[in-house]
Amino acid sequence: MEPPECPVCLQSYDGESTLPRVLSCGHTACEECLTNIPKKFPDTIRCPACTVLVKFPPQGPSALPKNIDLLRLFPSSSNPTPDSTRNSKNSSFEFVTRSWPDEFHAAWKDRVLLLDAVSVEREGSTESASSSRLCGCLNKGDGDGDSKVSLLRVGSFQRRDDGCDSVFEFSYLLRMISCLWGMEEGERDELDVIMRVEERGVSKVFGLWGDLKSGVLYLVGQKLTDFSLEEFEDISEDDASCLAVIGMQLCEALLSLHKDGIFVGCLSVSCVKFDEFGNAFVDFIELLETGRNVYGLISEETSSCSKPVGALEMGLVLKRLVENGIFVSFEVLFELLKKQNLLITQASSECMVACSSDVLPVCVLLLMLLGGKQFSEELIESVSGVDAKECEEKSEDLLVLYTGLMEKLSYILESKLSGKFKSMVGILRQCCCLDPQTRPVLTDLWKCNRELIMNHRLSSMFALEKKKPRKRKEFCLVLGELCRLVVVGSKELEEDLPGMESGDGAEEGKLDKDFVGRLSEGKIKSKDLRGHQDSVTGLAVGGGFLFSSSLDKNIHVWSLKDFSHVHTFKGHQDKVTALIYIKGVETVCVSGDGGGGIFVWSTSFPLEEQPLRKWYEPKDWRYSGIHALAYSEDGYVYSGSGDNTIKAWSLQDGKLVCTMTGHKSVVSTLVVLNGVLYSGSWDGTVRLWSLSDHSFLTVLGEETQGIVKSILSLAADEGTLVAAYQNGDIQIWRDDTSMKSMQIQSSAILSVALNGKWLFTGGWDRTVNIQELSGDEISLECTHVGSIPGSSVVTSLLYWEGKLFAGFADKIIKVDSHSLSNHVLLLRMVCNKSVLSEISRYIIVGVNKNFSFSSCS
Question: Rounded to two decimals, what is the model's pTM?
């Protein structure tokens, strides 16, 4: 057998260079390692084996006893095992089953705007709350007032009133993250690219916002000034510079998008907006809306036609597009028809869709601005006059239709443009070429517009820098997933909307495992346990029972199988204020009251009304009795009292073992974890005490003594300690290091429960709030997950094996009731009619302890 070694440096003990020293918790480490262990608090270190805080002598490790037995018997010895309390951790349940990783949450949480950041303009608008696009105002929160925004529908989520009677309400942020996770990966990728764009000449995208009333997730973008084609009527040569500037700015905006890997493929008059200085912008929201309009127009014109459609229907599609001021490149329209299975040819032009696909729409849009409304009417007339007979035998020859249109367009160019605009005819004709590879690039069109403003000599001084595209996946906006979310008429194609929640859960196969699974599915229902005559003060679980204490001086016992009332413990002469369950040599329930009484109740059958034993702390009219109880495996019951002390009592005989002093006000809450007793007080501090010798270890919370906030509740789990305060604050420590302090409620938090990363709080705001803790040893995040509204002040919380229990000031206890609906109570008895009628009376009354019940599904 290997010789024993130090758990820190792994050196074998030899009695000289590596000398074993024994800590008060019973574990051993070498003298040198104990010297180098960091000391967060004076005269205190954390045991390297069990992580319990223990006293450390000021003289150093030499004052600790040597482990003589270990040195003598090392061939047959091994390092001591950690405390049983360290190994016997409660099983942790996933409160909210999430399928997305933390990285996804971190990447998207800051892109979701606050719920009150956007106000939708519904009154006086013909747009419905569920329409594809809305207008609204964005509250900047910086004192600059509101700014106009456009909202584009990108996803849907379940509304609160959509046939869901769950008592749980997910937080706004979590519902938006869930909606995003439910999208297709392509949709999220496009949103990611769009929201990263911060380019010149492109309208800003502020983020995502969810409308809880309509259950719609919107993309929120900057709303700029619209213009009308009537404003461009009677354009003269004197206006050439103005139009050239607009042309340059449009080219610059699209070139900027190309750097981000985005090419649009189509444009409309509505995509061009102006700011207060008259600068032209490309509106991102309008670009997406235009792409959806293209899908919608194609669907409308071809819905009643057989597939594949002919040239006549394609002519109608082109006419409708031009009538709506939408200009689509040939290769882009070809791919759109292919995606909708309207063409049977196996040929594809997707490889031809590239940055050059933006040249043709820009060209037609500039011609529209140059020619005004008259040009638009002539273009529509030209489309209507394209002869479809030439391609009747070739029903899919879209090329013939486009060729005829481009010929008409070239004729209009030569007949309408003259004077200063004559120099643009050549390059505009090239831009109308059907072959994208022979079209000029956008930079050439930009230069052509610039030459209308400055002479050629000065123009040559400024060379347009050719920047390489960023290393991102390129995609065409109109061919993307976001533009496929179309609205035909007034009926939305909900099957195409991402993130729609049916309420069937995020994970298959998770039907009835625990409270967490049902929560994620939106199926949380509660059952009310009634019986107390006053406010509920405490909850405990053990031995198949739920125990509840109340100001009515009684303790009720409820069955965990069907939550029926089983028994009542009576005997307290004062209001019961604290309650715990102990599973040790004997399984008992211990309660404390306002008169200083501590009662021990047997939980073995048959249950008795009187306690096994009871004792009282010294009575003093100045103090308010017992406020908190805790238990250690050493057999001690600890009480926190109104006289500012913590007392240790022997559970076996009720004798007072020790009195711990130091708090300056009522000791309101106690927690035992990893060999340490944590006591919280109205003085705003948490004091730590060693369970081995009841000595004081250190104090937490002294850094906030300038503002005294009374601690009303403590919760601890796996090295994490949470304190709840009267002003709605919580403070979180990990390994006794303060990690987070924040306000999560507007009023006092009376109870707090902690299970793994899930934190539950309740108090005067009549709501159970759920937070999720995440992070590492350096930083900690506390994210609001959701809430469960209550009927009254929340006075007590308990989370046990996947079930949440809550006690309220209105005498009610609420529990998760889903399991009741999956059980059928069976009674097998052979009896005559008179006996059966007598039995039925007992069943109605609810005295079920006399019968044998079984459950089936």
Answer: 0.65
